[in-house]
Write a structure and sequence with these properties.
The protein is α+β, with helices and mostly antiparallel strands. It has seven helices and eight strands. It is 40% helix and 14% strand.
Length: 225
């Protein structure tokens, strides 16, 4: 089948998605058929099938879609395909997107986030440097296309204020993170989940770093906060 997409890039993206899915499952970030992963390939995308178990992906069954979201090969795409495609369109640096139902981040939405604009306070320097602002997206059913509008509006607002975001937290469903490659997206997810765990373990008592401390992270490391 002629896909119109670069075969080498598609093959590499298949391997990367399987590798990331296996890693997430083995480390407890995903379970059962929850979560999804995608990668940009040329003008199209490769995404996990709907309800696929991320720890047991078949590379040949990953859904390959064209620039219009139409299936070229593989199984039926995840029901969150629209959200993934809109993230790529809204943030030109995004080339890999991960959505999980990570335990501590879902628990955070149930226990109560710090604020709607920042689900966690900036309690550690690496959270400020590696994650940054993470807004809460109000609950909608899984796959609801309206979520994409809310997420892209948040991305646009933060880009306009020169504090771009790398993640959002879907109420009761978990994080959506992205980056220029798999390693960058994973780093955001891992630091975000770990910070949620720390904050919940300390009964949400720690306050944010001081304004001066955050300013130093901006000047020394270019932190987008």
């Amino acid at each position: 089948m002629t896909t119109g997409l670069p075969h080498t890039a598609v093959d590499k993206a298949r391997d990367e998605i399987v590798r990331v899915g296996t890693s997430l499952f083995n480390r407890g970030y995903v379970h059962a058929g929850a979560g999804n992963i995608s990668a940009g390939v040329g003008n199209g995308h490769l995404i996990t099938p709907t309800d696929a178990a991320l720890g047991f992906l078949d590379r040949h069954r990953l859904a390959l879609v064209d620039a219009n979201g139409e299936r070229i090969a593989g199984d039926r795409a995840s029901k969150t395909l629209t959200l993934h495609r809109r993230v790529y369109a809204a943030d030109p640096t995004a080339r890999f997107v991960i959505h999980t139902h990570s335990t501590h981040l879902v628990a955070l939405t149930l226990a109560g986030v710090w604020s709607q604009d920042d689900v966690l306070p900036p309690i550690t320097p690496y959270f400020v440097m590696k994650v940054g602002h993470v807004p809460l997206i109000p609950y909608h059913r899984p796959g609801d296309p309206r979520v994409a509008d809310l997420v892209t509006a948040r991305i646009a607002d933060r880009l306009a204020s020169h504090t771009p975001i790398r993640a959002v937290l879907l109420d009761r469903l978990g994080p959506v993170v992205w980056g220029p490659d798999a390693a960058a997206a994973l780093a955001v997810l891992e630091e975000l989940e770990e910070t949620a765990r720390l904050w919940l373990l300390t009964d949400r008592r720690p306050g944010p770093l001081t304004t001066d401390a955050i300013g130093e992270l901006r000047s020394a490391f270019g932190a987008a906060w």
